[in-house]
Amino acid sequence: MGGLGVGVPLMLWTHFRLPGAETLSVLSRYTIAPGVAFGYLGLVLILLRCGGGGGFLSRQLAAVGRTALSCYILQNVISIVAFYEWGLRLGPLDSIGTITAWAVISAILMLGASLWLRRFPQGPFELAWKAAVEASFRRRDRTRAEAKDVRQEPGQRHHDDNNDPSGAP
User: Fold this and answer.
1) Over the stretch 62-107, which tens digit does the pLDDT of each residue have?
2) What torsion do the CA atoms of 85, 87, 90, 96 make, to the nearest 10 degrees?
3) Pair 108, 100: CB distance under 8 Å
4) What is the pTM (predicted TM-score) of this model?
5) Is 152 left (phi over 0), alpha (psi -120 to 50) or beta?
6) Assign residue 164 a region: left if phi > 0, alpha if psi is -120 to 50, beta otherwise?
7) Whether residue 19 has a cis bond before it, omega within 30° of 0
């Protein structure tokens, strides 16, 4: 939490362009940012503990966790559409605008993830990834089974053909 105690005042100092803001801006961007990140992490942990792990924020973060790959990809797509020149051209943003954009995009992703998980067990990209991985294993298993059938002698039957574990005809 100490990172927020230092980082937020510096961010406000540079935002309001108080004396020395240019120097503080460079300093805060490249040296204090990791401390602020740990401060945000601590704040999230405190909020989660206050909710007892079963509160609203915990449920929303759990939904994002179950759809992490989809949320990551969608976050980038939303940001590209919102901030690039061929999109909505909302950028570049100052520090407060960046935090506001992050909060709005995060809220959209949390809402979308929880709505998606009402109908499906995982996010869309997670489901596609799982199907692709399982397909390669199914293909490999099928190839092994076919190779085993080819190597088997013509008169010999599978154990499963007569449910006799000895393989006797």
Assistant:
1) 899 999 999 999 999 999 999 988 888 888 888 788 889 999 999 9
2) -110
3) no
4) 0.59
5) beta
6) beta
7) no
